[in-house]
Every structure is written in C-alpha cells, then in structure tokens.
C-alpha cells in the first residue's frame, strides 16, 4: 500500500516527510488514552553523505502540556544516507487528550572522507494529531 505523506520540510537538501494515522485499536478514549502512528521518510537530496545521530521532538497535547523527547537515532538506528538515498521508519505517539501536535528536528552529521563532519539540524515538519470525533 502506498503511503500518503501529508507533511514535509526541507533543510539543506534533506527532505523529511510525515504521514500520521490515528489508531483506534490502540486507543482507549474511555480511559483518556489516544494513540497515533507516524511514518517518516527522510530523503537525502543533498550532495553530501549524512548520518542521522539524534532526534528532538516537541509534543504538545490539547491542554498545552509540552513533552520534549530527545534521543539517539530513530527507532534504535543511526542510518547513513548517501546522496539520493532515503530512510523510512514508523513509530508511535500516545496522548492523554484526543488532539495534539508534534514537531522537532534531527541532528545529522555531514560525513567527510574520514567519516565525521559538521552537525546539521534538519527540521521535522509540524503535524497535528487528531482523533476522529467518534473516537471519544
């Protein structure tokens, strides 16, 4: 099944695309729990070899409560992307409200011949988390 990416941001030739879906089977609105899955595609359209080394997320719920999530890589990986390559991964986000937002950035290293280089902050596009009205 072809994924429809609803949101995108480009930083220095690196494109981050996001598709997000509410998962009613993982949510329990009666208990105040909602869950979304998001699919990220990172496309290296730059002329440089890059490695994703860390992530920074800002997750805001419907009450305005902000959670900051920092960590190494994505889903346990620190992918290296040559020019023209892409990396896909899927992760999830639980909230205590039926609506919220996510945004953030990845830190990449531009890899030179020795395998280390300058850091580059690549924006993750802002995207909403919204449960259908029928979901609670």
From TrEMBL:
Residues 8-136 form the ApaG domain. Gene3D superfamilies: ApaG domain. InterPro entries: ApaG-like (IPR050718), ApaG_domain (IPR007474), ApaG_sf (IPR036767). This is Co2+/Mg2+ efflux protein ApaG.
